[in-house]
Amino acid sequence: MARILVLGVKVPFTHGGQEVLVASLIKKLRERGHEVDQVELPFNPLPKQNLLVQAAMWRTLDLENFAGQKVDLVIATKFPSYYARHPKKSVWLVHQLRSIYDLHGTAFSDIGDDPRDETMRRMLTDGDNIALGECSYRAAISKNVADRLRAFNGLSADVLYPPLPLGDRYYSAAAEPYVLSVGRICRIKRLDLMINALAQTSSLSLKVVGVADEPGAMEYFVNTINQHGLQSRVSFLGRVNDEDLLSLYARALGVFYAPFNEDYGYVTLEAMASSAPVVTATDSGGTLEFVRDGENGFVTAPTPAGIAAAFNALAQDPALRDKLGRAGRSFIEGSGMLSAGWDLVIDGLLSPLAAPATGQAVGA
Predict the structure, then answer these.
(1) Under DSSP, is residue 90 helix (H, G, I), strand (E, B) or coil?
(2) Residue of 257, 268, 197 lying closest to 233 (CA atoms)
């Protein structure tokens, strides 16, 4: 039995894949007899000038002992939790601060070419090199995240895909004429692509699960809906409970999930587990590790026309929807992502317990 801290990063009043991952990991570690607790600091991406302060806050934490009790291992997840210090530190990397890496120079980053921004970007990159380089074990939640780490920081990482949070509870049902979108409502998830695509379909509706976590995002999407006169065909459901989410996945004609360069995306795998075809885009990153165009879903250009064509094809051919859905479910069943994959994840993350505390990465 080991005493373990899992390090989470929380933006107050939001909920996403990282929170699901941390909760699931803690549950599975406890099931295996370990004593586990969570350390979480609030994170605020604005103003950007405070990013260095937030990294420094994690760096100042001494997590080796509490009230005379030794902490055997810490498991970090995403920026800036991996700045915490411990002689045995694993990281299961959800993502780094993407605005200084793959999103830099795009509309999704507020880090510009101002000398002050460039200085901050260099300092955070150097900090990442040190903090991630000292990990005893490094893993990433997808090949996409691991590839970024190698490209920008020269560091390797194993790929440990997170198993699905609801395990064996996903099921399929007869399709109904709606498209499902699940996730945070923000620009990088590109819900506007689906709304504009909906205007190019004749009878489909759109159900959106999630809440806005970006200033002005909801107003922008509502304006887009109003421009097309789609008010009666789009429903914002907010957060839903597990049973309702399972039902929504099971009955969807298909699931829209086409963020820009996604890290991993539970949504992709949850849809497949529910035999619902996924429509994603050619620049959606992590989704492309699972979606095969014309085999278990569609990979289209990131345009309303391409997305509309995919959903029109599903609507016009129920047999196609069933065929793609079955292929997705078959992939999930063979992947271990329903529940069996946890043994591989935990064996990797706990591997530093069997090694000397050298501060050098092992198993990656």
Answers:
(1) strand
(2) 197
